[in-house]
Design goal:
It is built from 14 helices and six strands. By secondary structure, it is mainly alpha-helical. It has three domains: 88 residues, Dna Ligase, domain 1; 80 residues, no CATH class; 154 residues, no CATH class. The strands form three sheets. Strands 1-2 form a two-stranded antiparallel ribbon. A two-stranded antiparallel sheet has the order 3-4. The protein has a two-stranded antiparallel sheet with strand order 5-6. α6 packs across α8. The protein starts with a helix and ends with a helix. The mean pLDDT is 93.
Length: 335
């Protein structure tokens, strides 16, 4: 009887250690992140702040062979979980949902992604600018930003920089299907040139319904051999020369137009060597499906804010430009 009683007590205590609640946080749920190549000691340190009784957790981890089978990734812990549930949860890595758009530089993009997955911005930049990868996929350091198509994606948190890059290259190839390639060819542009022009269109107007018209203006200029003279390229050139992309420039000055840079389309014919920002899909589609018209010029509207006034002749454009200059002066915008 004493043996049966002892076994019963032992069984009850073991049951409690395994199946009693053992969390130590007030939130309904928390996420923990176990890095690649972590051993049990590392994993335990990460989980410890969220566990009430660490000795009981360790005992169950041993019995369930977690100590020798730690998995990296993002894991969900729910309030009130018992040790058995916690160990089971630490075996199911959850995906991370990434969404990105309108990154101005590759460095900015790497920083944004590096804050959401295990790979840091340094390793991501190294992967993005790897010469063998660029050569194999037809990119340069100046235009590789085109490879990243803004959208929502799912990755496991412990995705490496190289695997992230390779997935993005695969998504890029899928995006540029035969239909889009044919539309680009119809505009006498390559997919990379489309992305570069789309980045200018994206920066010129936030109004998606106006982007096909703006794209039409730039395409008319390209076909006519006229310089693009796009203010966003000048702003980019000024920021790049100063290595200060946090600078806010609301007004382009005449001296800015003289900035010596391959990105300054007031000085150079044709497109810049790469995008001046990450264009979203609406800007890319605007270039692929431009509005057909005879406009060569456009200027910000002072009556329909956010939109632009378009013109065919220099004289018409000068009227619109003077209205805008007068409005800017009245607002006291110097820079």
């Amino acid at each position: 009887m004493l043996l049966v009683l002892a076994l019963s007590v032992y069984g009850y205590m073991l049951y409690r250690k395994i199946f009693s609640a053992n969390t130590n946080f007030s939130e309904k749920e928390v996420y923990v992140y176990i890095p690649t190549d972590a051993n049990y000691e590392t994993a335990e340190k990460i989980v410890a702040p969220y566990v009430e009784n660490l000795d009981n957790f360790r005992m169950v981890a041993e019995k369930k062979s977690y100590i020798t089978n730690v998995k990296p990734g993002k894991f969900l812990l729910k309030k009130g979980m018992n040790n058995n549930d916690i160990i089971n949860s630490l075996r199911i890595s959850l995906p991370v949902k990434l969404a990105f758009n309108n990154q101005e530089r590759l460095e900015d993009f790497a920083g944004r992604i590096g804050s959401q997955i295990e790979a840091d911005s340094t390793s991501l930049m190294k992967a993005f600018t790897d010469k063998a990868f660029l050569d194999e996929n037809g990119f340069t350091e100046e235009n590789v930003l085109s490879m990243f198509i803004p959208n929502s994606y799912e990755f496991f948190w412990n995705t490496s920089a190289e695997k992230f890059r390779d997935r993005m290259a695969k998504e890029y190839r899928a995006f540029w299907n035969d239909e889009r390639k044919a539309k680009a060819e119809a505009q006498n542009l390559t997919p990379l040139e489309v992305s570069t022009l789309a980045s200018i269109v994206h920066k010129e107007t936030v109004k998606t319904d106006e982007r096909p018209r703006v794209a039409g203006v730039y395409l008319n200029r390209l076909k006519s051999g006229i310089k693009l003279e796009a203010d966003p390229t000048v702003i980019y050139a000024v920021k790049k020369e100063a290595n200060d992309f946090n600078r806010v420039i609301k007004r382009v000055l005449y001296k800015d137009l003289e900035t010596v840079s391959p990105y300054n389309t007031y000085r150079n014919f044709g497109l810049p060597p790469g995008p001046i920002a990450m264009p979203d899909v609406s800007a890319i589609d605007a270039v692929l499906n431009p509005e057909k018209h005879n406009y060569i010029y456009f200027c910000a509207s002072v009556t329909n804010f956010g939109y632009h006034e378009f013109a065919v002749t220099p004289a018409q454009h000068e009227v619109n430009r003077q209205k805008y200059v007068a409005w800017v002066n009245k607002q006291g915008i110097k820079r």
